[in-house]
Amino acid sequence: MPNKFHQQDVMTPRALAALGDGKLAYVKPIRSDDVPRIFPGAPELDPGLDLFALLGADGSPIMITDSRDAALANAWEHDLETVSIH
Fold it and tell me: What is the per-residue pLDDT across 49-74, written as a single tens digit (0 to 9) for each?
């Protein structure tokens, strides 16, 4: 079966970030060790904690929490549509 994937089917990171016009976000599980990289200026956390980051479609940090439900609730409170990423 031939591959039907074409170069024009690829979405650039810039185009992906523009989706939803600032209304899309995603929840990403992270470790506390990654917080300084994703959230510059965040307070120092104990290493090895499992956390959840709410990020804009462009990857911009919105919030961090220890609960996926809290991240989703925050998105809902701010009228953000959350999408699944794989």
Answer: 999 999 998 888 999 999 999 999 99
pTM confidence score: 0.74
Length of the chain: 86
List the structure tokens of 21: 């016009």
Say which CATH topology domain 22-82 has.
GCC-box Binding Domain (3.30.730)
Amino acid (one-letter) located at 36? P
Q: Where are the extended beta strands (E) located within 1-86?
A: 24-31, 50-56, 61-65, 81-82
Those residues whose C-beta lies under 8 Å from the C-beta of residue 44, and which sit 6 or more positions away, are: 36
Instruction: Return d(Cα 85, Cα 53) in angstroms, integer.
Output: 13
